[in-house]
Amino acid sequence: MPKPAVSSTPLTNTAQWSEPSALDSKPSESDHRSRFVTKAALVLCGLVLLLAFTSLWHLTQGTSGALLVSSDLFLGSRLPRLAAGGAVGIALGAAGVLMQSLSRNALASPDTLGVTAGAYLAVTAVAAFGITVPIWATGGVAFIGGLGAGALVLGLAGGSGSSTTRLVLAGSALAMACQAATSTLLILFQEETKGLLAWGSGSLSQLSINAFLHSAPITLIALTLALLLARNLDILALGDDSASALGIPVRKTRIAGLLIATMLTATALTLAGPIGFVGLGAPVLTRLMSRWVPALNRHLLLIPTSGLIGAILVILADAVLRALIGPEGALAVPTGVATTILGAIILVLMARRLRDSGPTKQPPSIRFGARSRSRFALALTLCIALLAGTIIAGLLLGSTCLLTGDVALWMQGEAPPQIAFALDERAPRVIAAITAGAALALAGTLTQAISRNPLAEPSLLGITGGAGLGAVIVTTSASASLFGMLVGAIIGAFAAFVLVYVLAWRRGINADRFILVGIGVSYGTIALTTFLLLRSNPWDTPKIFTWLSGTTYGRMWEQLIPLTIALLIALPVIFAQRRDLDLVALDEDTPRLLGVGLERSRLLILTVAAILAALSVIAVGVVGFVGLVAPHAARALVGARHDRVIPVALMLGAVLVGVADLIGRTVIAPAQLPAGLIVALLGAPYFVWLLWRSRSH
């Protein structure tokens, strides 16, 4: 009988997956199926042998460099580490399969759906607030946090009907918000959360075998439940309508699958922290193998195969890391850093396989109708007033409240020493915040116009992460200077920008592919930054971590000069390109029909965005969400014409970072919170609302 038609889903846009047929029980096909099963059995046996070989090699990676070591060292260190790696890999590999099958999206995973970040936030919150939880209940806390994040992302992104780009953007942005909240807790409760920073990148270091023994039964139960769900998942791949017609309870299957996947993820996180992207890489490699062994498409084989590959990836990554930088060096670098880099590479490769399907579909949130000139004038006036109020409040409020007369005396050089000291410290911070906010808003406006996606921003396209990585390389490898950090940030931002542009190029730039490649590069830069951060001087780690969270603390006037000059130059250049921006934001064909050099304009505009993002990192560190929130809010106020969007977005971005800086240094004074974390916490609800509005499109 012919194979039932598979519904058109985002999954088929990313990779060619051979879905199983629901009707394949014809006796004449028994020999054919038998050969498929034999091949699958051989593959499983081969993977078991590879896992055994990798495990033996892993056991030799230690300070003694030999397999024959004392029983105390073997049982107390190496065996628990190996057992943890295998258990985590199996759990995350199986969880990734479930999430990809439930969303019918080849890029779904515990990381891209925000499950890992949500679970990490829940565990950190419990530790920060001193809530006493038994070790066995820690997994339950992680389960609740991960389940909430995953359900929120799937609900906001539109579930199985969402596009690949929309799902990954939603998960990445929500993960960024969860990470901001986690970082806030790590900074505010340093004593209570001691050790969670390194653990938060995924570490296989174990005190004993007990943690593995506690988690193993839960993992086995979850895997058994997943295998019992295998037939439903096979039929669900045919589409919701076909599955319902064949008697499959679609809604119950999705809920059960999400619960099992979250249980597996929470168990892995409790055992070794968030090991990044194994849940993406293992299923992808298994699906690729299914081209030669079609029987692996069956979830009864797909789930255990992905689990075995996941275990191999984790153990191999840990062994390679220990072999490259030595066992002692590897103690300071979590295994999750290595797996995240691997996952970033897989994400980029999968994004490059994305098929061109015409102009990118835009959610209605970017399609604002024309606004009147009087409305634009009113919005501009209100933004100017807000900006002026933010500057005044920033100068007056802080650990010591001042009066406007004090500011006037300071500007005349006649202020008392105490007031002069306070304003000498505050004024550069306030100007740094509003200048960087304006620059990030402009960079976000340009990025959204080029990608034709209102959910895109520089920090999700690798530009900001590249700038941060470049600056950290300079800071950790030599004596840090303003000029050195400036050069490092610019080189890093441009390297990331060029890498994204080249990898996304395929007879032109497809907007969805460009965004997905950018997210992959962004994850890679974050992992490399974490690697350098954890290997740096321990005395410098808190300072660098705070700077990477976005802070204006200790700003000086000379640090603002490069960004101010770049912004003053960029504004007239971009304003001259405002017509091209309007056309490029429409689709691929209209600019060409009207004589616009699409690739030339796109390259120029993105170059400006990269420069502004890089210099903003120097001014205030790594700050996200500004380039997402400010342009969208500006379009809502004044319409989509860029000659109106640009000035309003600039001021809204300046106000957002200025207010965040004010809150960060006053709400818990004399202690302070990085402005970048406050921006993320303020921007996340707006982003959720934006996704909710466009969830059905």
Describe this structure in words.
72% of the residues lie in helices and 0% in strands. The chain is an all-alpha fold and 697 residues long. The chain has two domains: 37-351, ABC transporter involved in vitamin B12 uptake, BtuC (Orthogonal Bundle); 383-693, ABC transporter involved in vitamin B12 uptake, BtuC. It is globular. The two termini are 35 Å apart. Residues 1-28 and 356-367 have low confidence and may be disordered.
Principal-axes geometry comes out as: globular
What name goes with the CATH superfamily of the largest domain? ABC transporter involved in vitamin B12 uptake, BtuC
CATH topology name of the largest domain: ABC transporter involved in vitamin B12 uptake, BtuC
Q: In the CATH hierarchy, what is the architecture of the largest domain at level 2? A: Orthogonal Bundle
Terminus-to-terminus distance: 35 Å
Strand-residue proportion? under 5%
Q: What is the radius of gyration computed over CA atoms, rounded to a whole number of angstroms?
A: 26 Å
Low-confidence stretches: 1-28, 356-367
The number of domains is 2
Structural class category: mainly alpha
- Following the backbone from N to C, one meets helices and strands in this order, namely HHHHHHHHHHHHHHHHHHHHHHHHHHHH
Helical fraction: over 70%
| Arithmetic mean pLDDT | 79
Number of strands: 0
CATH class of the largest domain: Mainly Alpha
The biggest beta sheet reads: none
- Looking at how many chains there are and whether they match, the oligomeric state comes to single chain
Number of H/I helices: 28
